[in-house]
Write a structure and sequence with these properties.
9 strands; seven-stranded mixed beta sheet; alpha/beta; two-stranded antiparallel ribbon
């Protein structure tokens, strides 16, 4: 069973958090939402309060085979001070392809700044793509090796399905699409 870490902070985009988490839990994946703050409670981009399952300080990142970064303006707060162990873990393990890294919206720009994208094609929210401008593609979902990206909240289902297919195959995604009447 896939184990997915979902990184949240204040101003995380609501749809980009809720849709993938819901789809992946329906698919039977073990999904853990992880706040990078000292507390699990965050205030999302549209003022919804959300209580993550745990905090970054309390988890072992090695327990997960997938790390997902929803977008929103909060991604700009992920830095060495509050997410240093996460950043270094993702940098190290994305390069050696030991984990799946996935992002949507502004979070892809942050991954670009961390050096995760390098020379791989990716997509993200317009205006946040400067860190990977040379490899930016305007597509609903881009999968290159162990990196899956999407441009924004309207593509949250497509991202969730792409990750589901990567982790469990086309038949599992077809089954969940049918159940969701998608």
């Amino acid at each position: 069973m896939a184990k997915i870490a979902v990184i949240v902070t204040n101003q995380t985009e609501d749809i980009e958090l809720f849709v993938p988490v819901d789809v992946w839990r329906r698919m039977g994946f073990k999904v853990t939402t992880i706040s990078v703050l000292k507390t699990p409670e965050v205030v999302l981009a549209n003022a919804n309060r959300y209580i993550a399952d745990t905090t970054l300080a309390k988890v072992k990142l090695t327990d997960f085979d997938t790390i997902f970064f929803p977008g929103g303006t909060g991604v700009t707060t992920l830095n060495e001070k509050n997410a240093g162990k996460l950043i270094s873990y993702v940098q190290k393990n994305c390069e050696n392809k030991k984990i799946l890294i996935t992002s949507i919206c502004a979070a892809t720009g942050m991954l670009g700044k961390w050096g995760i994208i390098k020379n791989r094609k990716a997509t993200g929210y317009p205006g946040t793509t400067a860190s990977f401008a040379k490899t930016y593609v305007n597509k609903p979902v881009v999968t290159v090796g162990n990196l899956i990206t999407a441009p924004g909240p309207g593509k949250a289902f497509l991202l969730a399905f792409a990750v589901g297919e990567y982790l469990a195959g086309k038949a599992a995604v077809a089954k969940i699409k049918k159940a969701l009447i998608y």
